[in-house]
Each structure stands twice: as structure tokens, then as C-alpha cells.
């Protein structure tokens, strides 16, 4: 099968290449799936074939059955790839081992205990490729959904002397924790509990019809200089009448002592495939560094 691979490497991996010299691009996917289905007992040779394939189209899905079947051998191979000069192999090491990879099979052992991932992710934290670093951040974000404090503890030493690239990785890795208001993650990124002299939330549209916008404004006055993350949560009414929150990112800002800032937001309430709306009293909350500091009710009408 390796003889059928196109000699081209590091091309646009989404583009299909198929000519007399071989195959590359998305046409590799069914070939990788075949290796995952038939090659579990072939060990090193099957892993080597996936390594060759991933340089022509990602094998991040196909590697996962190997991690479940023989985690020790597979993790050892991922560590070797994490040291490879080819960025697609380094990314495979991180992306393929994500505990919660979207559209990929789950890895329950790594979800339960991410310990084997720490040396691998540490190796890639300062990878020269943004493509690889983003995968590392996504892997950490997966882990954070089950082990939030472990992710904060892992990242804490990396905060010292961090480059801008590493800081961006850490911010992306902690995005779920920031939405949840995790105090440790906020502190890691330089966001202390807010100290504000005044907080006000004004709702401009207390009644909203599906398809319209929820408009509101906020005003903050800082007591001391501080970094702030502003988010907001909308508590949507569900079919059973209860409400569940969805957090939306808004703005990052730094306020000096005594500074007052005001801003407005217009949030569309429109039909989307991932949410069903129900009429009733919904709630808007302003989140500052993860803390709910103000809220207001609004009525949504679905017609």
C-alpha cells in the first residue's frame, strides 16, 4: 500500500492528487481507515504506514484504534513522531491522541487518566509550527473538560518566560475553562477576580421575537488597574421549562484605576441547526473574569 502513495509531501493536504505517480490528499482517508481496520496486529509496520500517509493526508482518525488496542506501543511511536522534523507527523502525535477528538472515536483510557499525554504535549508546547501548537491547545482543551485542575497545573510552569506564541497556545487551551470561570485558569492567564466600583447592565430589548436581536449595554468602573475578560451568558428556556446557559465570548480589556468604560452588544436570536428555541422568559448575565456580576430577564417569542 505504501507504494501507492504519491511522492508529493507537504502539499495542500485537502487537495486530492491521483496520477501515475500515486495518491495523496483526501483520497488517502479510506486507505488509512483500511489500515486501522486490518492492521491492528501488524504493530510497527502499520504505524509506519500511517506515518507515511499522514504526510499526504492526516491519519488522526486512523491512529486512534491503535492507541486503544496497544497504548504502550502507540504512545511510544507518537513520542518519536513528536521529535520528527515533519510537522504533519508532529501534529499527528498531538491530534491523534486527543481524548475527545470531534468525529473521531473516543479514547476512554486517556479521558480517565491523561498522564501518558503530559510528556508528549510538553515536547510540543514550543513547536515552531502554529499548525502543531493549535493541535496541542486543542488536546489540552479536551483534557480540561474532564481534568480542569490538571491542565492548569501542567500549564503553570510554562507561564514563566512565555513567548507570545506560547501564551496564545495557553489561552486557546484554556478557552473552555475561561468560559466556565475557572479561577485557576483565569489566574494562570493574568486575570484576577474583578475589583469594580460600579457595574451596570441595561437591556434595550426586553421583548424579542425569534429572528430579531437582543440588544444590551454595560458600563464598568474599575477600582484599580486590572485585566478583564467580558463574556455573557444567555439562559435559554428548554422544552421542560428549565433554563440552561450558553456562554458567548465578548471582549478583553485593561482598565486603569477609576476608569469607566461603556459598550453595547447586539446578539442575534435566530434559527440555527444546533439549537431549538422556546417561548418564555430567558435570562442574560454579564460575566467578568468568569463571575456573574449583573443580569436581566427578557421574553422570547417564537412564532
Automatic annotation (TrEMBL):
Q: Name one GO molecular function term.
A: hydrolase activity, acting on glycosyl bonds
Instruction: Report which residue ranges the record marks as coiled coil.
Output: none
Q: Which Pfam families match?
A: DNA_alkylation
Spans traversing the lipid bilayer: none
Q: Which keywords does the record carry? A: Glycosidase, Hydrolase
Q: What is this enzyme's EC?
A: 3.2.2.-
Q: What is this protein called?
A: DNA-3-methylpurine glycosylase
Question: Which organism is this entry from?
Answer: Magnetococcus marinus (strain ATCC BAA-1437 / JCM 17883 / MC-1)
Phylogenetic placement of the source organism? Bacteria, Pseudomonadati, Pseudomonadota, Magnetococcia, Magnetococcales
